[in-house]
Amino acid sequence: MKDNQTAVHGGRLLVECLAAQGVERVFCIPGESFLAALDGLHDSGIRTVVARQEGGAAMMAEATGKLTGKPGVAFVTRGPGATNASSGVHVAFQDSTPMVLFVGQVASDQRDREAFQEVDYRAMFGPLAKWVAEIDRADRIPEYVSHAFHVAQNGRPGPVVLALPEDMLSGPAEGSALPPATLTSGRAAEADVAAVVDRLATAERPLVIVGGGGWSGAAAQALGRFADTMGLPVGASFRCQDYLDNRHPNYVGDIGIGINPALAQRVREADVVLALGARLGEMTTSGYTLLEPPLPRQALLHVHSDPDEIGRVYFPELAVTARPGPFTEQLAAAARPREGGAWLTDARAAYEAWQQPFETPGALKMEQVIAHLNDVLPDDAVLTNGAGNYSAWLHRYYRYRGWRSQLAPTSGSMGYGLPAAIAAKLQQPEREAICLAGDGCFQMVSQEFGTACEYGANVVVLLCDNGMYGTIRMHQQRNYPGRPSGTAMRNPDFAALARAYGGFGATVTRDADFPAAFAEARAAGVPAILHLKTDPKALGPRLLLE
């Protein structure tokens, strides 16, 4: 045995490998299928956060990966633990977030007997993850963990799932951890950079659409310099609004659900579209109508980390396989002055006009809530949300001012906001973490408020209660007017729920009461819920139930 090798059980060796990769925190629901891994974590120095349900643990890991750019890690038990966690894996896949999920597995001598909670994880997670594998030999743990961290971070980032047979973890293991993953530069050839700059320099109506994984704070700053130098309007793909400071004069709005009609028309009229990291999926293209597949009217310059994504839906005039963050830094260095003219100024003016609040019914109006958040929150506050019509006010009216101030699922997963806020607060406790959630969205993960209280993650939850699944009610009213079915909700006193966990809770029913209640929640020193009772007639920023 080499001097740097130790004879330990598989669970201890696994944790040593995680520490070597720089993992500082893992999220889990404990299970008997990975007891040895829990034992390895006991005195490892890696902080273990015990969530309340595997879906919450997986979403916390995903949010950590999204916030840091390094894989978030979760452990869940076999069978139902894995199926619960699959929701977070799907979020990571569609959001291009680096993540590693470890799943307990039945002992190797019981495989293929449909043993207790046995699942074929390769088959189950195959469509949801970049790579799925099962570690059959303890001496190969370092190899598998190293490969998992390489796969999760290189190319298009995404989730990896590793199954851990119980006897492999508990048995003796001989080996040593490998160094942290070696990452590709993600840079493109200078000729590709020059070709993109040349094409944009001669465009009459250029537009940049940013999104996807593989960005950084430095890349976000470079994006601002590049857009300013070349006079380019920049739109953010669905739930990627923090890639450019929304106060930047070249930011023209979000290209997603509920898009500004003027911006949608600008996408249609553009002669050149630079897609920087964005997949150009259904949400960003308004159902594949803003750009028409397979050959869009606009000249498409598509930059993406995954070569298999380029040309998948749209035929590009110019294709570049590169990580969008490093490539944007290259673009900023190569940019040459170009006047944006009326094309840019008109686009920015349309965004400013779209920001003006439209009055909705009720004594408590979400447009006023968001306006107050704009006024009082610091630039580095992290705002999170799941899915639901309530998020439309946030996306339309809030101005994201810094990189990774928005944590939201492009997959449209309900229940994401609270786990994401908890992960953000644990990862960066100096930043405020504000979760917006609907009554249906929150109750998918409401138990995770207990996780926040246990670990001192002092998040503030703004819980919008209109007594129904508002998004589905909206679709019902459009398709089957006057015939609601399966969308009404009888809700608890959410403020009392917060207090039951030892947190702060208050109910707000009027605009005039929100500022004071929000200030009290922020200063409470414990996790907080503000139960916002909104009018069910207000389905969206400009959409009424009638």
Written description of the protein model:
With 546 residues, this protein is of the alpha/beta class. It has 3 domains: 6-174, Thiamin diphosphate (ThDP)-binding fold, Pyr/PP domains (Rossmann fold, 3-Layer(aba) Sandwich), CATH 3.40.50.970; 190-354, Rossmann fold, CATH 3.40.50; 366-544, Rossmann fold, CATH 3.40.50.970. It has 20 helices and 22 strands. It has a 6-stranded parallel β-sheet, sandwiched between helices. The relative contact order is 0.10. Mean pLDDT is 94; it is low at 1-6.
Layout: helices, strands, pairs:
Elements: E1 6-9, H1 10-20, E2 25-28, H2 35-42, E3 47-50, H3 54-68, E4 72-76, H4 80-95, E5 99-105, H5 121-125, E6 131-134, H6 141-153, E7 159-165, H7 166-170, E8 172-175, H8 190-201, E9 206-210, H9 217-230, E10 234-237, E11 251-255, H10 261-269, E12 272-276, E13 299-304, E14 318-321, H11 324-334, H12 341-354, H13 366-376, E15 382-385, H14 390-397, E16 406-407, H15 417-427, E17 433-438, H16 439-443, H17 448-455, E18 460-465, H18 470-479, H19 494-500, E19 504-508, H20 514-522, E20 528-533, E21 538-540, E22 543-544
Parallel strand pairs: 2-3, 2-4, 4-5, 5-7, 6-7, 9-10, 9-12, 10-11, 12-13, 13-14, 15-16, 15-17, 17-18, 18-20, 19-20
Antiparallel strand pairs: 1-8, 21-22
Helix pairs in contact: 1-2, 1-6, 3-4, 3-15, 8-11, 9-11, 13-14, 15-17
